[in-house]
Amino acid sequence: MTRTVCIGECMIEMAPTDITGQFQMGFAGDTMNTAWYLRGLLGAEHQVDYFTALGGDSASRQMLAFLRAAGLGVDHIVQRDDRSVGLYVIQLDNGERSFSYWRGQSAARTLAQDKTVLEAVLKDADYAYFSGITLAILPPEDRARLRDALVALRAQGGQIVFDPNLRPALWSDPQEMRDEIMATAAISTIVLPSHEDEATWFEDGDPEATAMRYATAGAPTVIVKNGADAMFTYDCGQMAWHDPATVKSVVDTTAAGDSFNAGFLASVIGGEPLSEAVSSGAQLASKVIQSRGALVEMS
Ligand code: ADP
User: Fold this and answer.
1) Nearest Cα residue to atom 2 of ligand 1
2) Which end of the chain has the smaller Cβ count within 10 Å, N or C?
């Protein structure tokens, strides 16, 4: 029996349908995608909670019902009656997907306002999972509060699992993003970066450079995802390369990294060795990118 708490923002997704001008409403968001897959992979003896803040409106209630129906623990979710949830619209322009976001005032931005709430959420957790997007949407003092709560969890033996998920558009400037990401990696036990983004914003020459940067900052375990190319892992001084799963035709890469993280983490929670966990992550991601959408049902 373990308890994992995934922390972040779930948004309403409006995705185009075959009928021009008609959209399908759904729910998605990087940490929620990972929580959703994790719930599907782990047995009922393992608890997976989602922690965020929602509004008091109908859209928020629908999101809460969706999370609950997915089997996620929602008991700690905070309700802010003066806010609502964030939303994004996917537009198709000549087959290319583009995204527009309305999330500046979302309730999720307030998720780390209260130290007592954070302590209650993380009490007795075995794993806390969050991302650079979780950090980016918080005011600076709330980021520090969340980090403090995670440091306390680590001191009690909890695993702090962090995907840097670099999104410069959500930060006030790229240097703030780099500083906050590195400070957070330093308090994490498992860091799950994607090399392509890291190369762009940290100028890493290869996945090994990405892994060593986070390891040097203090993370004992770093798994560097790398699209269709070989991944690199650092684990308490042990280094290795790993091939991704073979994919015949890529349909939609949405949630490749999020699903990889879930497959990896489910294996780690199940007590499997690191190389097995990487291959479980790669297997799940390869299935997800061969279907449309962020949340792909696995039979
Ligand atoms: P992100 O979605 O965060 O940008 P990546 O593109 O690095 O992350 O993909 C995450 C993981 O998904 C990869 O490490 C790999 O295991 C799998 N993956 C992504 N694209 C492919 C691909 N074209 N072929 C096989 N595996 C892939």
Assistant:
1) 257
2) C
Query: The tokens of 133 are what?
Result: 């997007």
Model ipTM value? 0.98
Please report, for residues 94, 225, 265, 297, the alpha-carbon distance to residue 163 in angstroms, rounded to integers and kept in the order given.
32, 10, 12, 23
pTM over 0.95: yes
Whole-angstrom CA distances from 256 to 74, 216, 283, 299 are: 25, 26, 10, 18
What value does the CA radius of gyration of the chain take, rounded to a whole number of Å? 18
Domain assignment of residue 34, given as a range? 3-8+29-82+107-289
Closest C-alpha to ligand 1, atom 10: 257
Q: Is 228 in the pocket of ligand 1 (CB under 6 A)?
A: yes
**Residue 163 alpha carbon, nearest atom of ligand 1:** 3
Beta-bridge mates of residue 162: 130, 191
Please report which confidence band the pLDDT of residue 160 belongs to, taking 50, 70 and 90 as the band edges: very high
Residue 294: inside a domain? no
pLDDT in tens, 125-142: 999 999 999 999 999 999
